[in-house]
Amino acid sequence: MPSPATTSASTSAGAGLPRQTVGARAVPFFTQARSFEQLWPLIERHAVEVLDDGKFSHGRQVERLERALARYTGARHVIGVNSGTDALVLLLRAAGLRPGDEVLVPAFTFVASASAVVLAGGRPVFADIDPVSYALDPAALAQRLTERTRFVMPVHLFCRLADLSAIGAFAARHDLTVLEDSAEAIGMRQGGRHAGLFGAGGVLSFFPTKTLGAIGDAGAVLTDDDEIARTVDALRHHGRLGRTIGNFPAINTSTSLPGFNSKMDDLQAAVLLAKLTRLDADIARRAELAAAYERRLAELPGVLRRPQVGGVEGQVFYVYLIEVERRDELAAFLAGHGVETEVYYPSPLHLQPCFAELGHRAGDFPVAEAACRRTLALPLYPELSLAEVETVCDLMHDFFDQRESA
């Protein structure tokens, strides 16, 4: 799931006690510049191998990455594709989605979670979310069930997995297939099992801001199902099975079914192979930064909810998301002091114009709608310094102190 647009500096923001020059870019929401300085020798070596091979898509570096990700996640099959969105479309198709089949999807997530269902020929059916995990609320699923429902798609957001035990039990009772939008969830595990492997399959996104990010779009399908893997392999390459995948030998290059052009670029795979070597260290650093935020924001009036840091099985901080009063005012204030933030997500899916034909109105999914009004993501990436976290928190204290004294 690609990130929403970064909050831009506001010319009207910045009143109060500025700690940075108004409009200065003090703390970017995200940057890869520092990590590339450290990783460049390894990236360069892999990139030169791509140039020497002369195969820039669907080649040797992609195969190497697929094997490395299979080892990291424990998946029987990892199939590299062009993006996380394509991974969802191909997984839905390979899992047997038929025209008109309904897929239960949370109302609060990036639009690709639902648009992938439409692109694969299905119909998204929205359900409300749990206010703590921001994922599908298992208690909300039953009322959205119809005779056409065939799939349920939990989305793992921000720093924790959905309630897979309850969702899996619901799916089993109603003979539904679980497919996970685990685009943000690399490194998240529960009971030793990696995200994306609790149902028929899952996906990963390597959009640049992700925990494991490329320098452009790239994604992957994870599955333990041999037939799904074989079908995704064909679909990503115009319906052709032309090279080794997982445990399957290369078959031929004839077209077995209508497919897509969704092959992963080898230069993206080269970057990801280099960054994978430091993924666990990056995850640990993200947890350290989240803990620093928690310490400074714990008693701050105006912060309605913070993520729990520690004590959550499989937790990986892709995003540090808070709920605050006067969210838009706070974002503008921070932007005016050079601190970039992001809003996840400005509008719930059931109120997006592209899903207007589903007939929803404001108030249909109140928890999702409240999250869209109040959530704000603060800068969080491995190269962020503790001093920069302090800058963000100092400014937040300034903002809420001024509001209380006004």
Count of runs of 4 or more consecutive helical residues: 11
Annotation, overall tally of beta strands: 12
What proportion of the residues form beta strands (DSSP E)? 5-15%
Order of helices and strands: HHEHEHEEHEEEEEHHHEEHHEH
Pfam family, one: DegT_DnrJ_EryC1
Keywords: Pyridoxal phosphate
InterPro entries: DegT/StrS_aminotransferase, PyrdxlP-dep_Trfase, PyrdxlP-dep_Trfase_major, PyrdxlP-dep_Trfase_small
Organism: Kitasatospora kifunensis
Topology of this structure?
Layout: H1 33-53, H2 60-73, E1 77-81, H3 84-94, E2 102-106, H4 112-119, E3 123-127, E4 149-152, H5 164-173, E5 177-180, E6 189-190, E7 193-194, E8 201-205, E9 219-223, H6 226-235, H7 266-276, H8 279-297, E10 303-305, E11 320-324, H9 327-336, H10 366-374, E12 375-378, H11 386-405
Parallel strand pairs: 2-3, 2-4, 4-5, 5-8
Antiparallel strand pairs: 1-9, 6-7, 8-9, 10-11, 11-12
Helix pairs in contact: 1-7, 2-7, 3-4, 3-6, 8-11
